């Protein structure tokens, strides 16, 4: 008896006994228990649903690029999440009756397909278990606990081919037929909106002869031109402006130097053309004239090569035909060329071949030679991997512990669903379909690690943060392989298991040993590791009996689009991008919001609510925590981010990757960002340390190293203004000098005396003003502080008073002296200014409240207690009468405030209205607040600044990506 599994490109047959269960044992199926759902109640009935309008415009052109009104989502889903799902995942023609309009329809389309296939292929013990599986999976998706990768939402349950995989690896041999077939297969994958990678090292070099004619071979770099042009033409199914592709070349290939320098030379060409007036921005009309821009390039290095680099020895480049050494090079010199090219244009990345294959579960079938475009999926040639990612923050309990038990149950359900999908999936080529069905590669991963670490009070670059990340990754992969072994007992091990049994078991033991080596530091990671240890014990015990259903279980993908679907603050393994967020609101309008994990992290260290409010207000104005009132410097590191004043150091990213890597079947999609000032030597050290720390792959990006990216660089704008001023100064021949004149106060003038206490130090401030024109003098008297301080304060008062009378604006002094930090500092007796970093900080905050108009001090983040209270109640700092008089705020604040009242995801204490004419994304918000640039391209769909996600970029406005599927 045989069973036929048909894909749109062909079919394969296999033994039903081998597929359905173990020999001489009737499969019983899985018993599924309820964890999140309630018997007798459908998950949809537990939530409140609402209708929304989704309208997307390109802000530069004003063109409406998408419109669907009346879509249905739970009330707790953000506008971003519902927009991205509506525009990306709802199927059917827009404006037609067959178009999906509710999240219920989308979830049912996918989940019911999984349930039906699971029942048909014997995964469940009974129909009741199948129903529980359906309800549990629906509940987790509905509540944003996890998401499948995008192809699942695109294709499953539709009339289209049921492609579920986002990651593909191809193969090419040293023949023209194979090379032309490579172009064809890559094109088919790009047409479907996915990406592919392959290794070109089998193609003989340009330094070798053709056997047929005796002529010289073209070499792999020449054939990259054709593939690059094809990718640029197809543009990933019309969904993005470039295809996603990876090209790998082994370090011992004779053409390795040409490969390394290829994109660097093209970047030089871009600079010359740009300076000549051509449009060389990413997507510009002239950028297509340069080559090799549609692929990520990576060099595959061996331990032999890296040891030669370390020892400054020589290294042999080998012929492709007979493996003989045809050239010897200085290893360190070649490594420096790789590093210099990465410094100049961010390519090539690096892949560590021996490490990758040391963790390979199926080496008897073939070596791992390449990866998908984002470098997280690494397995056999002509194979694919479907992905799913968990939202880690959903498993953080109210008492700030990690819910390991429910995390385990969630992983078990997700792995089961992912494996079921291979039973009905279609594949772009017959070879890929055969390999995937035989080895059943899965890629479970997670998102929101950065937010989880911050919320639990762990710095991203810390031993504690790495211990927790490693333990969670270990628990995820251990649970996945344990469930894989259980599935093998029900529906059989993967077809290639017996051939690779010893190797697979060896790798499982390596994972378990790495778990034992985790150095736990806190109760939270100790508990997670305890559960992970139990999972790995089950992996070895059950696997020894049943084998495993899947040759691969886990990777860490970028989670760009699906991260927004789950309302994640951070993607993949990344830290938080910035502490200040841009948030669209359900009722219209937008808000600037301080990351919600900041207050939660501060409560971990017993900060008072007053201090937390002051810190959050400071972050809202400055975008960072440096000198935030009341925040201890030793806690700054908890709030380090990918960008900004306290950006995480490059090696902090590398060390975090190293903490997770031993617990992943595949690798990690991540780019290590370096500042523009980084040197070639620093990049070389990152690549070298990546090898030492046991990573499988690594990519770097130095800010502003690429020309073809339109930037909003505040520094560049300031430089341009300065240059214009310098030119103007040279042109002006006649200089007119203006001197300020002193405007004295009248003999009798109104004044206000305020007593104050700052950190226990008491004093008095008398402020005199012009009858009709604001503050004109200040006198300060400190009680019980000695004659020296009294004299200094008198002199300071006189200096300030004279300057005020000469026309120096009070606002200038408020800007300069607020947040000035020295003792005495701390709590005050003033309800409007509850915390002060110094006496000067207090004095000028008080003066701002007394003498500056609301608009000016609001711009400086200074509000009275009454105004802060009003903001909590109504979403606005100003009284209604003031709002009606402020014409500039009519079109922005009222709409945003009203929307915020109806948006349960907005915490009013951390939010303020945003002028949406200037800001549309978090990246642009960050640039506006900090005055620094985010080196990322603009989105081709909506024109907004994208943000880094793994090894690519993602738009938080519409979910588009720069190439990764």
Describe what you observe in this structure:
The chain has about 950 residues and is α/β, with parallel strands linked by helices. It has three domains: about 1-165 and about 370-560, no CATH class; about 170-365 and about 670-700, Anaerobic Ribonucleotide-triphosphate Reductase Large Chain (Alpha-Beta Barrel), CATH 3.20.70.20; about 760-910, no CATH class. It contains 31 helices and 26 strands. The strands form eight sheets. Strands 5, 6, 7, 8, 9, 12, 13, 14, 17 and 18 form a ten-stranded mixed β-sheet that branches. Helix 4 crosses helix 12 (about 405-425), helix 9 (about 305-310) crosses helix 10 (about 330-345) and helix 15 (about 465-490) packs parallel to helix 17 (about 525-545).
What's the short version?
By secondary structure, the protein is of the alpha/beta class.
Mean pLDDT over all positions: 85
Largest sheet: number of strands, sense, barrel closure:
10 strands, mixed
Helix-strand category: alpha/beta
Measured distance between first and last alpha carbons:
39 Å
Helices and strands, with pairings:
Blueprint: E1 2-7, E2 10-15, H1 16-20, E3 49-57, E4 64-74, H2 79-88, H3 103-120, H4 127-142, E5 146-148, H5 150-155, E6 167-169, H6 176-191, E7 195-199, H7 220-234, E8 245-250, H8 256-275, E9 296-301, H9 303-310, E10 314-318, E11 325-330, H10 331-345, E12 349-352, H11 353-358, E13 383-391, H12 404-424, H13 430-439, E14 442-447, H14 449-455, H15 463-491, H16 501-516, H17 523-546, H18 560-565, E15 580-584, E16 590-594, H19 597-604, H20 609-622, H21 650-660, E17 671-674, H22 680-692, E18 697-702, H23 714-731, E19 751-758, E20 761-769, E21 775-782, H24 787-805, H25 810-817, E22 826-830, E23 833-836, H26 839-851, H27 854-859, H28 865-874, H29 880-885, H30 893-901, E24 911-913, H31 922-930, E25 947-949, E26 952-954
Helix pairs in contact: 3-4, 3-12, 4-12, 6-7, 8-10, 9-10, 10-22, 12-15, 14-19, 15-17, 15-21, 16-17, 19-20, 25-26
């Amino acid at each position: 008896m045989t069973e036929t599994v048909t894909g749109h490109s062909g079919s394969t047959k296999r033994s039903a006994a081998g597929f359905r269960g173990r020999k001489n044992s009737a499969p019983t199926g899985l018993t599924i228990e309820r964890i999140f759902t309630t018997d007798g109640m459908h998950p949809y009935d537990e939530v409140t649903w609402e209708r929304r309008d989704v309208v997307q415009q390109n802000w530069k052109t004003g063109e409406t690029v998408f419109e669907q009104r009346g879509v249905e989502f739970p009330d707790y889903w953000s506008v971003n999440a519902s927009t991205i799902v509506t525009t990306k995942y709802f199927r059917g023609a827009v404006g037609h009756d067959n178009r999906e309009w509710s999240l219920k329809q989308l979830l049912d389309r996918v989940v019911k397909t999984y349930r039906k296939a699971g029942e048909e292929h014997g995964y469940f013990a009974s129909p009741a278990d199948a129903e529980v599986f359906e309800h549990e999976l629906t509940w987790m998706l509905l509540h944003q606990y996890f998401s499948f990768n995008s192809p699942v939402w695109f294709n499953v349950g539709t009339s289209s081919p049921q492609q579920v995989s986002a990651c593909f690896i191809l193969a090419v041999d040293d023949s023209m037929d194979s090379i032309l077939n490579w172009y064809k297969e890559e094109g088919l994958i790009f047409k479907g909106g996915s990406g592919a990678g392959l290794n070109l090292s089998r193609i003989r070099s340009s330094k070798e002869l053709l056997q047929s004619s005796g002529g010289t071979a073209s070499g792999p770099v020449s054939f990259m031109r054709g593939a690059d042009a094809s990718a640029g033409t197809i543009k990933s199914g019309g969904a993005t402006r470039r295809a996603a592709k990876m090209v790998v070349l082994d370090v011992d290939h004779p053409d390795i130097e040409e490969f390394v320098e290829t994109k660097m030379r093209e970047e030089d060409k871009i600079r010359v053309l740009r300076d000549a007036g051509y449009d060389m921005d990413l997507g510009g009309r002239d950028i297509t004239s340069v080559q090799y821009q549609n692929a990520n390039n990576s060099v595959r290095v061996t331990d032999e090569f890296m040891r030669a680099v370390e020892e400054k020895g020589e290294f042999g480049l080998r012929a492709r035909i007979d493996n003989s050494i045809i050239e010897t090079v200085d290893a360190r010199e070649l490594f420096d060329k790789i590093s210099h090219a990465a410094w100049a244009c961010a390519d090539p990345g690096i892949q560590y071949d021996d490490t990758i294959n040391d963790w390979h579960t199926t080496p008897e079938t073939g070596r791992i030679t390449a990866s998908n475009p984002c470098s997280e999926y690494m397995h056999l040639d002509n194979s694919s991997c479907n992905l799913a990612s968990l939202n880690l923050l959903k498993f953080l309990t109210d008492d700030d512990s990690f819910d390991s038990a429910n995390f385990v149950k969630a992983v078990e359900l997700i792995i089961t669903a992912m494996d079921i999908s291979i039973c009905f999936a279609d594949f772009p080529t017959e070879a890929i379909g055969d390999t995937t069905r035989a080895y059943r590669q899965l890629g479970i991963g997670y998102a929101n690690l950065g937010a989880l670490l911050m919320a639990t009070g762990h710095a991203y670059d810390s031993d504690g943060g790495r211990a927790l990340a490693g333990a969670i990754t270990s628990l995820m992969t251990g649970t996945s392989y344990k469930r894989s072994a259980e599935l093998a007992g029900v529906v059989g091990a993967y077809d290639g298991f017996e051939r690779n049994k010893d190797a697979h078991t060896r790798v499982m033991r390596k994972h378990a040993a790495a778990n034992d080596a985790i150095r736990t530091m806190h109760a939270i990671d100790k508990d997670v590791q305890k559960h992970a240890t139990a999972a790995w014990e089950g992996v070895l015990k059950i696997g020894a009996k049943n084998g495993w259903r899947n040759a691969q279980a886990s990777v860490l993908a970028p989670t760009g689009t699906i991260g927004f679907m789950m309302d994640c603050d951070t993607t993949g393994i990344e830290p938080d991008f910035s502490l200040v967020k841009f948030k669209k609101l359900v009722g219209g309008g937008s808000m600037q919001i301080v990351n919600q994990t900041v207050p939660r992290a501060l409560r971990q260290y017993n900060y008072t609510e007053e201090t937390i409010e002051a810190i959050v207000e400071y972050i809202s104005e400055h975008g960072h925590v440096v000198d935030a009132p009341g925040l201890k410097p030793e806690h700054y590191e908890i709030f380090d981010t990918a960008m900004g004043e306290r950006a995480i150091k490059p090696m902090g990213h590398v060390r975090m990757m190293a903490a997770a890597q031993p617990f992943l079947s595949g690798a990690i999609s991540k780019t290590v960002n370096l500042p523009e000032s980084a040197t070639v030597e620093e990049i070389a050290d990152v690549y070298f340390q990546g090898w030492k720390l046991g990573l499988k792959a690594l990519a770097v990006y130095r800010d502003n190293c690429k020309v073809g990216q339109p930037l909003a660089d505040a520094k560049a704008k300031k430089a341009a203004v300065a240059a214009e001023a310098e030119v103007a100064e040279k042109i002006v021949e006649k200089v007119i000098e203006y001197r300020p004149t002193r405007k004295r106060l009248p003999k009798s003038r109104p004044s206000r005396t305020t007593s104050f206490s700052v950190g226990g130090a008491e004093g008095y401030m008398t402020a005199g003003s012009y009858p009709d024109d604001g503050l004109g003098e200040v006198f300060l008297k400190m009680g019980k502080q000695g004659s020296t301080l009294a004299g200094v304060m008198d002199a300071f008062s006189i200096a300030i008073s004279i300057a005020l009378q000469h026309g120096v604006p009070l606002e200038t002094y408020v800007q300069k002296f607020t947040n000035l930090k020295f003792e005495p500092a701390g709590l005050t007796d003033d309800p409007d200014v509850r915390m002060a970093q110094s006496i000067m900080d207090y004095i000028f905050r008080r003066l701002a409240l007394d003498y500056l108009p609301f608009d000016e001090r609001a711009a400086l983040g200074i509000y009275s207690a009454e105004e802060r209270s009003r903001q909590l109640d109504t979403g606005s700092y100003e009284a209604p009468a003031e709002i009606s008089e402020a014409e500039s705020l009519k079109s922005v604040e009222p709409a945003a405030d009203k929307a915020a009242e109806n948006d349960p995801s907005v915490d009013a204490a951390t939010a303020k209205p945003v002028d949406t004419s200037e800001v549309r994304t978090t990246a642009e918000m960050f640039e506006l607040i900090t005055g620094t640039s985010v080196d990322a391209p603009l989105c081709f769909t909506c024109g907004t600044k994208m943000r880094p996600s793994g090894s690519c970029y993602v738009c938080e406005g519409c979910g588009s990506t720069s190439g990764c599927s």
